Amino acid sequence: MDSSAFQPIVWDNKVRKGYNTTDIPLEFCMLQEKAAASFTAWRRGNESLGEELADVVLYTASIAQMTGLDLQQEIKGKVDKNAARPD
User: Fold this and answer.
1) Which SUPFAM superfamilies has this protein been placed in (predicted)?
2) Model confidence, pTM
3) The total number of structural domains that make up the chain
4) What is the Cα gyration radius of the chain?
């Protein structure tokens, strides 16, 4: 599934469950917490690393939706920009 299809699914789940859909600073704080939890899981060799990394993606998709960004388009642009950088 590409992020164009993924982003609305993540958003719909947040709305259905009554999760935060308006407080962008809070969403960034939660993203930071999930990134830290990912690092901790990796450092400890914890099996939850994949789940924690998935949470990072979910929060990133939510922030993109909250700010009106098409994450798929942004990722494609960034990948292209990185590929064009000299070695």
Assistant:
1) all-alpha NTP pyrophosphatases
2) 0.90
3) 1
4) 14
The answer to whether the CB of 14 falls within 8 A of the CB of 59 is no
pLDDT at 1: 72
Q: 59 and 53 in contact (C-beta within 8 Å)?
A: no
Side chain identity, residue 44 = R
> What are the angstrom distances between the C-alpha of 50 and each of 28, 39, 63, 83, 84?
20, 11, 20, 26, 30
| Identity of residue 60 | T
Residues of the chain with pLDDT under 50: none
Q: Residue 52 belongs to what domain range? A: 24-84
Q: Measured between alpha carbons, how far is 87 from 74 in angstroms, rounded to an integer?
A: 22
Take residue 4 and report the two structure tokens written for it: 């164009």
CB 23 within 8 A of CB 48: no
